[in-house]
Amino acid sequence: MIFRLAIPTPLFHYFDYIAPENININQLKPGVRVRVPWRKSEAVGILLSTSPSSEVDIKKLKNIIKILDEIPLFPNSLLSLIQFSSNYYHHPIGEVFAAAMPTLLRQGKPADYRQHAGLFETMPEIPPVLTPSQEEAVQKILEVPNSFQAFLLFGITGSGKTEVYLQVIDNILKQNKQALVLVPEIGLTPQTILRFQQRFRVPIAVLHSGLTDRERHNAWLQALNGDARIIIGTRSAIFTPMKNPGVIIVDEEHDTSFKQQEGLRYSARDLSIVRAQLEHIPVVLGSATPSFESLHNVKSKRYQLLELPERAGNAVHPVFHLIDLRKQPTLHGLSSILINHIQKHLDQNSQVLIFLNRRGFSPTLICHQCGWIANCKRCDARMTLHQQPFHLQCHHCGASRSVDKVCLDCGAQNLFSLGAGTERIEEALQEHFPKIKIIRIDRDTTRKKGSLEDKLGEIHAGEPCILVGTQMLAKGHHFSEVNLSVILNADSGLFSTDFRGVERTAQLILQVAGRSGRMEKPGEVILQTYHPEHILLRVLLEQGYHQFAELALKERESAGFPPYQFLALIRAESARIGDSMGFLFEIKELLNNFKNNKILILGPIPAAMQKKAGKHRAQLLLQSSQRKLLKNNLNYLIENLSQLKHKSRVRWSIDVDPVEML
Ligand code: ADP
Ligand code: ZN
Ligand code: ZN
């Protein structure tokens, strides 16, 4: 008997081994780890399957050294998911396993773990009575037990989506099953976890990037052994084994953090559908601003739509105002109308939230004499000026240096900063409102452990104040005293070269809008824009997200973009742009010679930011209306990699269903 293993290497195939007589082959079940000889040393492999024969000469096969697990670490459905991921994303199987498992297990450490302490002192919270539409959603999700169905739960912030999840999970727990809940990176706050802990008296495993190796190891094994009944985690939690899965929930399914942007470039949202199919369970994708992909899947009847149109708790549609910046003088990006509005809300003892997607003091340091701009030496990008502490920093590669005192081109001492980031907005607002507390939340002010919690605590204390911040402020939190939300620059994504720019902008606008509004009173949202007549912006604000998406999807269809056609992006980077481009030209030629080829091959072109962290980047886009054709091409590419002469000079990757195109 031949044992077929996955071993963590960048090679695209399996490795066959045999078992010596002292090993009990009955213990060699798929999903167990084994220690094997590997090159001049040893490796930890995962057993995938057995086979009566091998493509390799049997005499050359080596013996398994040791079986590391009594029970498989990977149940069959999870093995299938991992194999699917390897095929779909064209990533080496061994590296997919490596990405899927905790470090200690990868290193071959024993799969023993601490049981969940499970001490519950307080009584569980009593759930509210569901509204009719919530009730219907819960019923539908639980309707057909032990079978797959995907649902899109669509409702504005505060419409009661989380309550639907909680009551579905309650039912699943009563059936003795487990629930897997995926949340965006920024959404996994202590408040989120608390909400589950207050409702349920069951062990909850939490999986996120901030855990120690040992914590991750424990949580993972608690899930595998059925000890943890609810598993809440970010992206990579989609690979958590479960003894008895009952439902998968993906909250804020449109969030781009569900897509991994390096290594195995998977979408946890998309894999949640595959996993639910393999497990024969329902999967619920929830959002106030669903991704166009998911809306399209509703249209084509692959997902069932569940809408929460009514108000539960504190969902009130906010009132939008546009400020036309063309007619307004601004100082540091703040128009005088805006200042008056902020004053009005502060006078009413409310809090005000100001969103700007740019941290630092100013994005540009420029010479008054000759126009020279302080750039990063390693990227095709400007250095951002920071005041606290005073330095220049590149937001793309992290490089920093002291602030130039003279122009590096003409030597003039006349340098000034152009444009505003959150630091400057904070300063400018403090000048306008000297007596008001300004709380800034961005990566710079929350670096210290506990500082975010401190700031959130101050906000929740409820005194009138102004919150200034980036994405960190826009997502996940609910601020009950905020009654005005402001987006300082609503245009930044509208004219992006990325075809998803308008979708992202709309999602962001509604996300920021969702932060404001009290129990009874609708909040106010102000967008500053140079394009108040922009048709998509108008439709979004006047008719809502659904109509906006209909219109924007038509543009996608005529342009041949997803979800109507499928994309794969091949990226290459190296010390010289010639090598990166040369490599991609070779691929293009290779694929052009692939018979029956009907896909569109666009490029190669240098990336929008060609130089990043000292590397020169280029990309080649493959486009097709049929996934299968893309897949065939990529398989053909991988089979013929050894032909490519530039291969050793570049780092390269395949990105199937890319979400970042730049
Ligand atoms: P979402 O997840 O859509 O933002 P939540 O489920 O968090 O909405 O609900 C918003 C608020 O309304 C929460 O405070 C929640 O406890 C409350 N809520 C949700 N459903 C109900 C209901 N049926 N009756 C009363 N309050 C509810
Ligand atoms: Zn100069
Ligand atoms: Zn840089």
Outline the structure in words:
The chain is α/β, with parallel strands linked by helices. It has 4 domains: 2-75 and 91-106, GIY-YIG endonuclease; 132-308, Rossmann fold, CATH 3.40.50; 319-360 and 421-558, P-loop containing nucleotide triphosphate hydrolases (Rossmann fold, 3-Layer(aba) Sandwich); 566-656, 2-Layer Sandwich (Alpha-Beta Plaits). Helices cover 29% and strands 24% of the residues. The protein contains 18 helices and 30 strands. It has a 7-stranded parallel β-sheet, sandwiched between helices. Strands 5-2-1-4-3-6 form a 6-stranded mixed β-sheet. A 6-stranded parallel β-sheet has the order 14-26-25-17-24-23, with helices on both faces. Helix 12 links the parallel strand 23 and strand 24 (465-469). Helix 4 crosses helix 5 and helix 15 (535-543) runs antiparallel to helix 16. It is globular, with a radius of gyration of 27 Å. The chain starts with a strand and ends in a 6-residue tail after the last strand. The model has no long low-confidence stretch (mean pLDDT 93). Bound molecules: adenosine-5'-diphosphate and zinc ion (2 copies). Adenosine-5'-diphosphate is lined by residues 128-131, 134, 155, 157-163, 312-314.
